[in-house]
Design brief:
The protein is built from eight helices and 13 strands. By secondary structure, it is of the alpha+beta class. It has two domains: 183 residues, Ribosomal Protein S5, domain 2 (2-Layer Sandwich), CATH 3.30.230.10; 154 residues, 2-Layer Sandwich (Alpha-Beta Plaits). The structure holds (3R)-3-hydroxy-3-methyl-5-(phosphonooxy)pentanoic acid.
């Protein structure tokens, strides 16, 4: 879609060396993306809230290479240190973008990146890291060729590129909330990139907190790549995709009208569906820990006792995201302190909330 052989630097007029820095947040899906086809295209539309305190900072430095190679020249540091795994992942990603950004092979590139949360905290970093890198690449294209001056075109391309790195990363480009995947509920929605939906949703959803209860920081038992692939043989796959589409329509309706209860019900149903799908995949994965289940039961009891709109969601792992509106923060923080922290590894809670989206630094 974005292949462009004209994005080549004129070697008689090389650019000065420069750098670009972007901070990009993670996001938490309410309707989940689980199952894909082709080149990172989703089987169903998803909607996420953009977070604020869990982010990646990425600095991309570039200098013209006197003799362009057939490969990408990349120096890579993660938290100021070499990291072979991330370097290889980044290099493979940049190599895969050769026909979209042909100028990359004409440059010496250096990527320095780091997260606001500890690497092994059990918080997925692919959404924040891939969106930050995609934003740097689009800024680089614009700095060299002036081709992405229109902010909407810039965001759309950044979202498209982020998606190629990690599907869910395409939603991190936008403030507050984003939808990725074709749906008649959102005009202009696409499987190729996410679109912003903040303007469509009630103000209450600008002030949602997401306190992430770290039950275990262990490496994921199943990579998302393998997880998505398992959906291809899952006997419930087609029913699931239809369900996700219905839930997305209902969620958009609830978010337009400010209906927190329906929002929370869908968030919880989606979390449990995601885990149920993994449990009935072949091989089967059970990603909840006893602490996960204990937290879920306590959240339900707390809601019944207090009437407070506090809901949980889960990613593909044991950690629990606690979602609630800002006006009950004092009560909820006391509840976490007294009743939930005991289930967290070293009492670790990453406090997050709905944020304003990426920032160029
Ligand atoms: O973006 P990926 O390929 O890592 O997949 C992420 C899938 C979930 O986090 C489980 C759900 C979602 O929509 O973010």
């Amino acid at each position: 879609m974005y292949e462009n052989p004209r994005l080549v630097i004129d070697s008689s007029n090389p650019p000065e060396p420069g750098h670009i820095v972007w901070r990009s947040p993670s996001n938490i899906a309410i309707v989940k993306y689980w199952g894909k086809y082709g080149n990172q295209l989703p089987r169903n539309p998803s909607l996420s809230l953009t977070l604020a305190s869990s982010f990646t900072d990425t600095r991309l430095e570039y200098a013209f290479r006197e003799t362009a190679g057939n490969d990408i020249e990349l120096e890579f540091l993660f938290h100021q240190e070499e990291n072979e795994k991330f370097q290889a992942k980044t290099l493979a990603f940049l190599e895969s973008l050769g026909s979209i950004f042909p100028f990359l092979k004409q440059l010496k590139l250096s990527v320095h990146t780091g997260n606001s949360f500890p690497h092994s905290a059990g918080i997925a970093s692919s959404a924040s890291s891939m969106s930050a890198l995609a934003l740097c690449l689009c800024s680089l294209e614009d700095a060299l060729f002036g081709t992405l001056q229109d902010p909407d075109a810039f965001d759309r391309k950044a979202s498209f590129i982020a998606r190629l790195g990690s599907g869910s990363a395409c939603r991190s480009i936008f403030p507050h909330a984003a939808v990725w995947g074709e749906t008649s509920s959102v005009a202009g929605s696409s499987n190729e990139y996410a679109v912003p939906v903040a303007d469509m949703v009630h103000d209450v959803f600008r002030d949602i907190h997401d306190d992430i209860l770290i039950v275990s920081s262990d490496e994921k038992a199943v990579s998302s790549r393998a997880g998505h692939a398992l959906m291809d043989g899952n006997p419930y796959a087609d029913t699931r995709y239809a369900q996700a589409r219905r839930r997305l329509d209902n969620l958009i309706g609830a978010m337009r009208s400010g209906d927190l209860q329906t929002f929370g019900k869908i968030a919880e149903d989606e979390a449990l569906t995601l885990h149920a799908l993994m449990m009935c995949s072949n091989p089967s994965y059970l990603l909840m820990h006893p602490g996960t289940v204990a937290i879920i039961e306590k959240v339900r009891a707390y809601r019944a006792d207090t009437g407070h709109p506090v809901y949980f969601t889960l990613d593909a792992g044991p950690n629990v995201h606690l979602l609630y509106p800002g006006d009950i923060i004092h009560d909820v923080r006391a509840f976490i302190e007294d009743s939930l922290k005991m289930h967290c590894e070293n009492g670790h809670v990453q406090e997050d909330w709905v944020g304003e989206g990426p920032e160029e630094m």
